[in-house]
Design brief:
By secondary structure, the protein is an alpha+beta fold. It is about 20% helix and about 35% strand. It has one domain (about 25-150): Umud Fragment, subunit A (Ribbon).
Length: about 160
């Protein structure tokens, strides 16, 4: 009996480590849909970093995964808690000051939104094909599962995202 237990222990340790890593550190996520094109494409596998969210919080332009209804969505953070987010003539303004965006995105129709404390305003890079905070409002921090910064698959696109 002791010999069998000794043989099983390494497998149990591996299973526990995998569960702990996936629960608290990182886990793969699949892009579903076209709302993040040209940054992320339908079917790509990305790495969801949970620990970076806990350690460093969220910054403007981070790409995040969050729970909306029963779905997990991937979008880009545009507005932080307490900010006024406005698009005017396809230009981003935060608290009435123009902000340069370091990534490509589709044309964005004019809108203005006051982000409540503890919430974030998120949009897809493919603005014409994205249901996001412009439709369902800002998202609460406790619904955000982690940040996305690395594409794992397909291998020809492996690496950091913009």
């Amino acid at each position: 009996m002791n010999k069998k237990i000794k043989e099983i222990i390494p497998y149990i340790v591996i299973i526990i480590c995998v569960v702990l890593v996936r629960t608290f550190l990182v886990t793969p996520a699949r892009v579903d849909g076209e709302s993040m094109e040209s940054t992320l494409y339908d079917g790509e596998i990305v790495l969801l970093n949970k620990i970076d969210l806990k350690l460093n919080g969220l910054k403007r332009f981070d790409v995040v995964v969050f729970k909306y209804d029963k779905d997990l969505l991937i979008k880009r953070v545009i507005g932080l808690p307490g900010e006024t987010v406005e698009y005017l003539n396809n230009e981003l303004y935060i608290n009435y000051k123009k902000v340069d965006t370091p990534f490509e995105f589709e044309y964005t129709e004019d809108f203005k939104y006051e982000v409540p404390d503890g919430e974030y305003f998120v949009v897809g890079d493919n603005r014409d094909n994205s249901k996001d905070s412009r439709y369902f409002g800002s998202v609460k921090l406790n619904t955000i599962k982690g940040k996305v910064s690395i594409i794992l698959f397909p291998f020809k696109r492996i690496g950091k995202i913009k």
